[in-house]
Amino acid sequence: MNFRMKIPEDSKWLFQSHVGFDQTWGSYFAQYNAAVDNLVEAVQTGAVKIDQVSLPMIFLIRHVLELGLKNNVAQLEKINGKEGKLRPTHNLEALITAFNLELSKILDNNSISETTLSEITKYRSKLAELGDTIHNLDRGSDAFRYPVDKNNAINFDWNKTIAVDDILHLFFELRSFFAFTIAVLADEGVKGVENL
User: 131 burial class (0-12, 13-18, 19+ CB within 10 angstroms)?
Assistant: First the structure.
């Protein structure tokens, strides 16, 4: 393993980040998405092997999922006439449940085209599958960040393997759903979207 020791003087400017510009959920969502894409590209080009980046990659996917759910739940709650507070949880099951509850209220109380309803049903099914997959691997949002759980037990058995490509396939299909859920509802004429 080679550790980079120093950033060369002539390229330090490349690492000057304006983090203060990123004050929205959308910008965080976009940056974590970009990080996943960059890791996938690095694996595909052979710059790194999947076993060198699988833990941070799946953690980033999990975090994008969490960001997308939290933002969408807050926005959907506002459409439903609630305050739209962000959930202080990392529990994907709870966030998916809240997302589905708020989205169902909107779908039940508005006239939504059959085409859109069919697409939403497909995305919700994929969300359930990805949520279950990641939640079963990482219930406490720690397994991809630390080698042991809160009881100091090893997170993954020695021979555990993960089909990261299956996770990525679902992730790639779902991220546009999170990015455009509210826009689709606006296009469908859902009342309350205009107040966001």
Answer: buried
